[in-house]
Design a protein that fits this description.
The protein is mainly α. Helix content is 79%, strand content 8%. It is built from nine helices and two strands. The protein has a two-stranded antiparallel ribbon with strand order 1-2. Helix 2 packs parallel to helix 4 and helix 2 crosses helix 8 (167-202).
């Protein structure tokens, strides 16, 4: 019974922690705006990376808590998160100013229809676009890992688990925390992707403004982390 309670509690803690962190949402949103139809994958990768970071801290604390400067590791991770958010925001602003909507008409069996797609500097050449997309697919995982190593992630995801009386309950809490984090960010990214798809149909200008707005938010949160934390 204690293990089940620990699992549910960890899951709730993971959901609340992810969705109430402006730095989490600021890091993921520019990617969801860029991906749109596969936005859920961005959240999934971030959630897996975040969970990996938290679990890494948990293992290090459990094995080397007397030797390892966990607080120092967390502090440097926080600064790195801030820098990454600023870079991500700059990338988002560039995408917002350079992305254009193009369409090509085709005729099949007497029926004429158009295909709409986005053009940006990264997609000007197929090989270059493939290379860029490959790197972008890894970025949410890496940023999620940094978030897992930084800030209050280990305070919520690790310390309560270490306080539980049984080893099974400890493991279940950490597992629940990871699953909750992944599910919450995947759901958030999916909703954002659907919202952006609808906005894109209405106006490419509105899409660009949205991307730039979220990019500026990412820069603001990143600067706050670098200056204030």
């Amino acid at each position: 019974m204690q293990a089940l309670i620990a699992l549910v509690t960890g899951g709730i803690a993971g959901i609340i922690h992810v969705l109430t962190g402006p730095d989490h949402l600021a890091a993921v949103t520019p990617f969801t705006v860029d991906k749109r139809s596969r936005a859920w994958l961005v959240g999934l990768l971030w959630g897996v990376g975040h969970t990996a970071g938290v679990w890494t801290i948990g293992v290090l604390v459990f094995l080397f808590k007397e030797m390892l400067p966990v607080d120092l590791l967390s502090a440097w991770s926080e600064r790195l998160v801030g820098a990454v958010l600023v870079v991500l925001g700059i990338w988002g602003i560039r995408r917002g100013f350079t992305t254009r909507l193009h369409y090509h008409e085709h005729k099949h069996d007497g029926d004429r229809h158009a295909h709409f797609h986005l053009h940006s500097p990264e997609s000007s050449h197929k090989k270059k676009h493939s290379h860029t997309a490959h790197h972008h697919s890894h970025a949410p995982f890496g940023i999620g890992s940094l978030h897992g190593l930084a800030g209050s992630s280990h305070l919520i995801g690790v310390l309560p688990a270490l306080a539980l009386s049984s080893q099974v309950a400890t493991i279940m809490y950490v597992v629940g925390y990871g699953v909750g984090s992944i599910a919450a960010m995947t759901a958030f990214s999916w909703v954002m992707g659907k919202f952006v798809q609808r906005m894109l149909i209405r106006s490419i200008r509105a899409y660009n403004y949205l991307l730039i707005s979220f990019a500026l938010m990412a820069i603001g949160v990143g600067v706050f982390w670098l200056v204030m934390i």
